[in-house]
Amino acid sequence: MPTAAEHLHNAIAAHNAGRLTEAEVGYSRVLRRQPNEARALYGLGLLSYHSGSRDKGIQYLVRSLQSAPRNGRAWITLGSMYSETGKAPEALAAYRRATQVAPELADGWYNLGICLKREGDFDGAAQQLRRATACPSPSSHAYEALSALYYERGQLQEAAQTVADWALREPGNPTAIHMAAAVSSGPAPPRASDAHVRNLFDAFADGFDRNLQELKYQAPQLVASALRASSSAASAAPPFDTVLDAGCGTGLCGPLVRNLCRTLVGVDLSTKMLAHAQRRNCYDELQTAELGAFMRTRPRAFDAIVCADTLVYFGDLAEPLAAAHAALREAGVFVFTVEAPAEAVEAEHRLEMSGRYSHSEGYLRRILGESGFDIASIARKKLREERAADVEGYLVVADKSSTSVSWRHSTPRVAGLRYHRPNRRKP
């Protein structure tokens, strides 16, 4: 007959291999012989929590830590469970305990810092995040969060030094590379890399909408209003047949433009952002792709393209504008926002310390004309707030050509990539 140790070994192996039912049976066998076996309780806690029995999972973790109170990773896991279930004080206490019993684990300090930031204790958050970066194996998240915290508080020198330290520690990290370029005086890359953009928004996806609400983000409303105003249709039918939401993110533009078109397509690099967009239940098609590459696969497929605060990850706009021009039908409309420089500069575009690019109005006018667009309007607008100040940018409405042709409702769809069509009811 297998011993309890053998049952435990087999259960852990099954758990790691994804054989969850087998793992649960194995852990239960162990606990029948040894009710306080910490590793079996921990394993059952994970299985219960991730299967939807969150309270039960937390109870197993608490029992596990009663048997093995110096397990730092278990305290971090318990803190994450508390955090995800809205138990902020309990999460804070669990992370503090993790730093006490396992000060070498960066995740304990990092999560403690994030909790303190959410409570408004920015000095305490910075202190814990600095401890996280000083650990033997610091996480990228700690550097990123610390530099962002310094930037938000206007401590730009500290933010720059944190990013520089990060790039030295992780010279192959695409986000560290990009942010190091943003704070340096050297030449900036022509655009943010796909890897940086994907990593950035995968990390921010779950809290993205909440964070933008706190920043009084207005770009989706601006582009939707501009698209509506660009249509002269007087009938009750949608004025556009097919609209692309380029860089759709979590789908903030989707509900605002849904009633303006028969078919709404979204594209984004971040699969985690797209998961949130799908839950809005207003897109006919969602694609994971770089927006320029995607638009190149859909020649003359769209009557309108909206792009809210996505071109801020491009310095040189020639390629995305050329791709948009190719994807639009004749007389198609392109509505987008970009950030404006905070002060007058000679550069046509500049990589800011935020990691986003700003563009001058003169550059926009030139590059739009060179890309084959007629400018309908360029208006300076408040896009959001940041560091207790307004972030202004340009709301641009441009047409593929000034020729008046009948393209609405009549142009057939162009076949392209395989796509996922979410189930939804059209309005």
Walk me through this protein's architecture.
The structure is a single chain. The chain has 427 residues and is α/β, with parallel strands linked by helices. It folds into two domains: 4-190, Alpha Horseshoe (Serine Threonine Protein Phosphatase 5, Tetratricopeptide repeat); 207-399, Rossmann fold (3-Layer(aba) Sandwich), CATH 3.40.50.150. Helices cover 50% and strands 16% of the residues. The strands form two sheets. It has a seven-stranded mixed beta sheet with strand order 3-2-1-4-5-9-8. A two-stranded antiparallel ribbon has the order 6-7. Helix 15 links the parallel strand 1 (240-246) and strand 2. Helix 4 packs antiparallel against helix 5 (72-84), helix 9 (140-152) runs antiparallel to helix 10 (156-169) and helix 10 (156-169) runs antiparallel to helix 11. The relative contact order is 0.07. The model is unreliable at 403-427 (pLDDT under 50).
Number of helices: 19
CATH architecture title of the largest domain? 3-Layer(aba) Sandwich
The largest β sheet comes out as: 7 strands, mixed
Low confidence ranges = 403-427
How does the helix and strand content classify structurally?
A: alpha/beta
Helix content class:
40-55%
Count the beta strands.
9
* C-alpha geometry: globular
Overall pLDDT metric: 90
Write the layout of secondary structure elements.
Layout: H1 4-16, H2 20-33, H3 38-50, H4 54-67, H5 72-84, H6 88-101, H7 106-118, H8 122-133, H9 140-152, H10 156-169, H11 174-183, H12 194-204, H13 208-214, H14 219-230, E1 240-246, H15 254-257, E2 261-268, H16 271-279, E3 285-288, H17 291-296, E4 302-307, H18 318-327, E5 328-339, E6 349-351, E7 357-359, H19 361-370, E8 374-386, E9 389-399
Parallel strand pairs: 1-2, 1-4, 2-3, 4-5
Antiparallel strand pairs: 5-9, 6-7, 8-9
Helix pairs in contact: 1-2, 2-3, 3-4, 4-5, 5-6, 6-7, 7-8, 8-9, 9-10, 10-11, 11-12
